[in-house]
Amino acid sequence: MNLIRLLKYKSGSFFVMIALLGIVNSLVYGSIMVFINNVIAGVGLPFIVAPQSWVYAGLLVVSFLLNKTFQTYIARLTNSIVFEYESGVIDKLRVSTFESFEKLGAQRVYTAIQDTRLLAQVPSNFVNAVNSIVIILCGLSYMFWLSWKAGAMVLFFMGLLLAFYLLRNNSIEKQLNEVRDLQNDYHRYLRDFLNGFREIKMSLNRNNSIYERYIKRTLLGSKELNDRTSVRYLVNELTGNYSWYVVIGLILFVMPQVLNIPSARITAFVFTILYIMGPLATLISSVPFFTRLKIAVERIDGLEKEIDTYPQYDLEEQPVELSRSFTGLEFKNAAYEYKDAAGNKLFAAGPFNISIKKGEVIFITGGNGSGKSTFINLLTGIYMPTQGSLLYNGQALVMNSYPHYSDRLSAIFTGVYLFNENYDGFDLDENNPVLQKYLTMMELEDVVRFDHQKKSIDNKLSMGQRKRLALIYALMEKRDVMVLDEWAAEQDPHFRAYFYEQIIPVLKQMNKTVIAVTHDDKYYGQADRILHFDFGKVARDVKLQHAKQPELVK
């Protein structure tokens, strides 16, 4: 979708406003040009009775008000487009499946949203371009009125100049597309550099490699392409500017001899050329902006279309009402297949035939690549089975059920992420007795800092402490099912033992269903059941017995 179609799509009156601007500006700029030329030549205009200075001032006021009105209209229109695009993309992403987000990649979303910032520069550039075109057309019309032969010569020259521009601009556009691809790569490398900064400090080879072979090489490639495009644009601009001096030379030295044009008209021609040189330079200098804008709009449009091809949830529709009260989960022949971009099968997990009852504590065990993470993604509704089904309280889930199903579970994933804002609206007042009880349970009562203005808790904690805080938030969600993916991995020995021997039994006494991925075989006895995974399947399903349960932590 190009810019004109995009603006037209967002506003039905766009072409009306363009036509109005063009017509009125043609009259205003044409009148200014004829008026100035006649004043210089000492020729009056018989239909004007007011003082010439008043007429000139009036024309300028009309031009100013018209341009202000149109620029305001375009500014509001483009700001609306930026708002609708950014909010629209994020809205579509939030109702997309997790698999869709993985296919898109975060860097593409970041880059496309950055592209919308170019739209903010549209009002001034667009109006200046329209005004420049109007002034150039008025100048050409005036030259044709003075001498159609001379006007035809100038028009022919402008046609050659335009063809030169279009030819060179096609190759420039290809290079700019390459620059955008390099920027996508750069954002990916930069995210690795920033998010893995601690790991980078631990290896000189990794430190040098990510900078020299990836970040620096990408930036250098982008710089070299930008250098080439900048030089090409500069050559275009200089060629355009100096070509008009060639035209002035033709008018001064060739036209009087070839076309026998009077000196008064030669003066008018030179004045007109000088008058339109400024707008033409403006038009030429705006070409890089509109080329980049064209690429940005195409990529924005491409991202939107790609998102639209992915499955999306309808959050307003819930085909089957899912009770908040949990009774059980069941996997019926459920499996998930990973495929590459060509659709070739890479890895499959399942089929799973597993029942989970209310109040069970289940430990998930197995080596790397055994299928544990895929099972957790299926369990939490992050992935939907590619075959078979998942039943919640005996009800089979369909696509639009999954957001509501996931909303019935609390999950803490391996790479736990704590948000900077209190998006869940928890009561995080330090005087909240429930919160204080949980902080005491997690041994964080003397560690956390409260942000009273944001009504949140500062999450600048160690990884183990962040996981404890995440478990507090999970408890405050008051959901019956808790999924913990290697939650104890970053805890110190004391708290790891405390978690398995005290907190897990407490959660069981609270009638929570706990599914925890763990490698801590020392504490397997705290589970009711152990599911051991191997090669994408459940290799063993072991049920255990318990002699006692500890009291609730006070």
From TrEMBL:
Spans traversing the lipid bilayer: 12-36, 48-66, 126-144, 150-167, 242-260, 266-290
Biological process per Gene Ontology, one example term: peptide transport
Major place of residence: membrane
Annotated localization: Cell membrane
Span of domain ABC transmembrane type-1: 16-292
UniProt KW keywords: ATP-binding, Membrane, Nucleotide-binding, Transmembrane, Transmembrane helix
GO cellular component: plasma membrane
Highest taxon of the lineage: Bacteria
Topology of this chain in the membrane: Multi-pass membrane protein
Name of the protein in its database record: Cyclic peptide export ABC transporter
Organism listed in the record: Chitinophaga pinensis
